[in-house]
Design brief:
CATH architecture of the largest domain: 3-Layer(aba) Sandwich
Number of domains: 4
Radius of gyration: 35 Å
Number of strands: 18
CATH superfamily of the largest domain: Resolvase, N-terminal catalytic domain
CATH topology of the largest domain: Rossmann fold
Structural class: alpha/beta
Strand content: 15-25%
CATH class of the largest domain: Alpha Beta
Number of helices: 17
Largest sheet: 6 strands, mixed
Distance between the termini: 123 Å
């Protein structure tokens, strides 16, 4: 009999472990805790390994279904589990705790199912003294994983409801909540064991910057309009007839001055434009789609309601870009249209470098630029060919219109009260009296009566806000009133010659409309020597 010796291998198969490391990045937290998770995961290998460590999935963001930002590496993990690119059967997905994976039951269950299908294990480091490894193919392990995900989803729902309840409570009382807007500072007191905001006021430096932003965007003298008092003043060095400044130009100026946000980054025009539309700077809040005043004595606005409304009207005006754009070079291009296609007009040089107004869309029409400028604006630099002496300027349509004092006075004046304005003022006064009666009346004795009184007051506030906005719109002077010089006796021809291209362009864009001088459209040529006057069609409102 021959004896043979069989050598039994004691080598243990080594699995590949891949971590999913995630931290919720927020105030007071950084991605540094990812390092802590990784250290604990490495330590757990002594008990459950040996493992070789493959590339980790790293994310900074919330795992809650209420989160608004995507998690790129989480999406990659899901794709790898789906395709089998995660690894070989028996490889391990390592998590610090089950809630790091997902707090949404459907997503978590899908991960468990994909792991079972690929024969991958799931290890939870924070369970027990050294962690626990689950096999999703085992019904008991699968149930335990799903129960953990269900608990995480329930806790996320509780946190969301608690946060939303606090926000709604602050909003209903008109108190500030959430992040502090740029330009403001807050004062807190401990009430019922918790810090509560008792005052929001303009910050000494940043508050003045916000006042500057509104004043420059509106092109007004300062942030006090009418008789309304505001907490912090800023006076525009350009004076009272300044043009509204482009937001991008303000952003560039702030960057050059080193003005930055709380993160140390410069503001771009999108940031400033969003800030200019926030009612909080005028002491307003949105309630059921209507802007109403903050009913909170600790709130100080930075700008007046009238200034805020003026900026919103400017942003809503489509003609605003026609004279505030950075690359403007010609006065009339924004005010002219191609008659055949209604397209915009541009300036192009074709014949011997002579500029002409031409259809920018299809090239339908072309006309000599100098001749059109003479008709619409005029010749302002005329000289006597024999003596060389300056002659009085030959006024075109625009300057002839502005040279009539009675027309300019009408452009400057605030519209007189008509029947609609008077009816609005009467209704507004009645509602304000009703609101004052409710505010000064004795406190109701029953809870139901107090709730009804609060509801009535909120409805009155909304109705008053709607009427105030309507009255502001009805009594707003023409835009030219804020561009022309304040002095009624000023020489507007000399003022025009001294004005920059943006101011001239603004006047042309506002005058050459169907409601005033007429919309100018250029028609195609009908013959070799068509007069330019025959090529211009003036469309006026009926």
């Amino acid at each position: 009999m021959t004896l043979t010796t069989t050598r039994i291998s004691t080598k243990v198969a080594i699995r590949t472990a891949r971590e999913y490391l995630r931290v919720s990045k927020g105030k007071g937290r950084t991605a540094r805790s990812i390092t802590d998770q990784h250290r604990d995961n490495i330590a757990t290998e002594k008990e459950h390994g040996p493992w070789t460590w493959g590339p980790a999935y790293l994310d900074t963001g919330s795992a809650s279904k209420y989160a608004k930002k995507t998690r790129d590496d989480f999406d990659q993990l899901m794709a790898d589990l789906e395709s089998g690119a995660f690894g070989k059967p028996g490889d391990v997905l390592v998590l610090w705790e089950i809630s790091r994976l997902s707090r949404e039951m459907g997503v978590g269950t899908r991960i468990v199912e994909l792991s079972a299908r690929g024969a991958y294990l799931i290890h939870i480091t924070s369970e027990g003294e050294s962690g626990r490894t689950y096999d999703p193919r085992n019904y008991a392990d699968r149930h335990a994983l799903q129960a953990g995900i269900n608990d995480a989803e329930r806790e996320a729902g509780r946190l969301s409801a608690r946060t939303l309840r606090g926000v709604n409570s602050a909003a209903s009382e008109g108190r500030p909540h959430g992040r502090i807007p740029f330009g403001y500072a807050r004062e807190y007191e401990v009430i019922d064991g918790r810090p509560r905001c008792v005052r929001q006021f303009p910050a000494p430096v940043d508050g003045k910057l916000m006042a500057e932003l509104f004043v420059r965007a509106a092109g007004v003298r300062d942030n006090r309009l009418g008789d309304e008092s505001v907490a912090l003043m800023y006076t525009n060095p350009a004076g009272g007839d300044a043009l509204p400044e482009p937001v991008y130009a303000i952003a560039q100026g702030w960057a050059e001055r080193g003005i930055a946000n709380a993160s140390g980054k410069s503001f771009h025009d999108g940031n400033l434009r969003e800030m200019l539309t926030r009612p909080t700077y005028a002491g307003l809040r949105e309630h059921n789609g209507v802007l109403v005043p903050m009913q909170w004595e600790g709130y100080e606005p930075i700008v007046s309601r009238e200034l805020f409304d003026r900026v919103q009207r400017l942003f809503a005006d489509p003609s605003r870009r026609t004279y505030l754009d950075s690359g403007v070079q010609h006065v009339l291009t924004a005010a002219l249209l191609c008659d055949p296609c209604s397209g915009p007009i541009t300036v192009r040089c074709r014949k011997a470098g002579v500029p002409g107004y031409e259809c920018a869309k299809k090239g339908c029409v072309r006309v000599d630029k100098a001749e059109v400028d003479q008709i619409i604006i005029g010749d302002l630099e005329l000289t006597d060919p024999e003596t060389g002496e300056a002659l009085p300027p030959k006024l075109g349509v625009i300057l002839a219109y502005l040279s009539a004092p009675h027309r300019v006075a009408r452009l400057r004046e605030r519209p007189a009260d008509g029947p609609e304005e008077k009816a609005t003022r009467t209704e507004l006064a009645t509602l304000r009296d009703e609101l004052e009666e409710l505010e000064t009346a004795p406190q109701p004795k029953t809870a139901r009566a107090r709730i009804q009184r609060t509801t009535d007051m909120e409805e009155l506030e909304q109705d008053i806000a709607v009427l105030e906005a309507k009255l502001t719109k009805l009594t707003t002077p023409a835009p030219l009133g804020g561009i022309l010089p304040d002095d009624p006796s000023a020489d507007l021809v000399a003022w025009w010659k001294a004005s920059d291209i943006h101011r001239q362009r603004a006047v042309a864009a506002l005058l050459l409309t169907p409601e005033l001088l007429g919309q100018v459209r250029i028609t195609p040529s009908q013959g070799w020597r068509d007069p330019v006057t025959d090529r211009l069609t003036w469309l006026t409102a009926a």
